[in-house]
């Protein structure tokens, strides 16, 4: 075999290796969410014109664009430059560049604290890696919607299915766990002890007559409700206080 023929065969054999090396590998493969399911995700999150949605791993931008069509502001980020260019072109074609922005960016380095809604179609491992940021950087009451994949032992508030595809909704809970002094309008004072894991809460309300277990406690975003001693309590949880909307009582954080 002459030298030129050997060189040609060697080069041909190397083509698959060169092609594989040129093709980037990403943590999450690109699989688009069907259009009907996109709308169902936005419905489940209750997206309106007052929202700011961030789609982490946005692909061709269809979820962020659908949110923008509802009047919301939106940001889509993806590490794949091809997908980002498709999304930018789609926003330009739809004349929605004033409402939606796309960036080539690592989703783990994307600031999310301004978002009221986060959308995901990633993988279970990536969801779990993101979970601490979702719980600590997003404001309580923010909504997280995932196509197909869960958040481990963080139980979803709701889930729906469309043609065999599942979507999950979580609402970021306020930090209600700890010790509080609950004071009624008439001056009566109680100690409120709350144990919390995600949105699951339990505890006791203790006064002069002893400790009462919290019955049917519910924490949904910033709204906390429970019954103790046959009486219903409902309030809005802040950083250092819980306020009854009717003004019948307030609670101040001790720890």
How many H/I helices?
A: 5
Topology as a string of helices (H) and strands (E): HHEHEHEEHEEEEEEEEEEEE
CATH topology of the largest domain: Rossmann fold
Query: For the record, what CATH class of the largest domain applies?
Result: Alpha Beta
The count of strands amounts to 16
Number of domains: 2
Q: Into which percent range does the helicity of residues fall?
A: 25-40%
Which architecture of the largest domain per CATH? 3-Layer(aba) Sandwich
Q: Which structural category do the helix and sheet elements fall into?
A: alpha+beta
CATH superfamily of the largest domain: Vaccinia Virus protein VP39
Based on CA atoms alone, the radius of gyration comes out at: 25 Å
**What quaternary form is this?**
single chain
Mean pLDDT: 91
Unreliable sequence segments: 1-23
Distance between the termini: 83 Å
Largest sheet: 9 strands, antiparallel
Strand content: 35-45%
Structure description:
It is a single chain. With 255 residues, the protein is α+β, with helices and mostly antiparallel strands. The chain folds into two domains: 137 residues, 3-Layer(aba) Sandwich (Rossmann fold); 76 residues. Helix content is 26%, strand content 36%. The strands form two sheets. A nine-stranded antiparallel sheet has the order 11-10-9-8-16-15-14-13-12, with no helix packed on it. 33% of the residues are buried.
What's the layout of helices and strands?
Layout (H helix, E strand, L loop, with lengths): L2 H20 L12 H11 L6 E5 L5 H8 L3 E6 L2 H13 L6 E5 L12 E4 L3 H14 L5 E5 L10 E5 L2 E7 L6 E7 L4 E9 L2 E8 L2 E4 L1 E6 L2 E6 L2 E7 L3 E4 L4 E5 L2
Parallel strand pairs: 1-2, 1-4, 2-3, 4-5
Antiparallel strand pairs: 5-7, 6-7, 8-9, 8-16, 9-10, 10-11, 12-13, 13-14, 14-15, 15-16
């Amino acid at each position: 075999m002459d030298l030129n023929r050997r060189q040609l065969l060697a080069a041909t054999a190397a083509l698959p290796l060169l092609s594989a090396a040129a093709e980037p590998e990403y943590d999450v493969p690109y699989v688009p969410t069907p259009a009907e399911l996109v709308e169902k995700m936005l419905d489940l999150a209750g997206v309106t014109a007052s929202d700011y949605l961030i789609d982490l791993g946005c692909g061709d931008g269809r979820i962020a664009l659908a949110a923008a069509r509802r009047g919301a502001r939106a940001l889509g980020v993806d590490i794949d430059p091809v997908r980002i260019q498709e999304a930018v072109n789609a926003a330009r074609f739809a004349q929605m560049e004033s409402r939606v922005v796309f960036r080539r960016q690592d989703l783990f380095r994307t600031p999310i604290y301004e978002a009221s809604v986060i959308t995901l179609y990633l993988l279970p491992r990536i969801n779990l890696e993101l979970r601490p940021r979702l719980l600590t950087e997003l404001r309580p009451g923010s909504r997280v919607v995932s196509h197909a994949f869960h958040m481990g032992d963080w139980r979803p508030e709701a889930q729906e299915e469309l043609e065999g595809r599942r979507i999950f909704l979580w609402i970021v809970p306020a930090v209600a766990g700890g010790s509080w002094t609950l004071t009624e309008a008439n001056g009566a004072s109680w100690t409120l002890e709350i144990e919390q894991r995600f949105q699951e809460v339990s505890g006791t309300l203790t006064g002069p007559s002893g400790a009462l277990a919290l019955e049917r406690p519910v924490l949904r975003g910033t709204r906390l409700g429970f019954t103790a001693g046959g009486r219903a309590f409902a309030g809005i949880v802040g950083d250092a206080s819980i306020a009854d909307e009717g003004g019948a009582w307030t609670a101040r954080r001790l720890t």
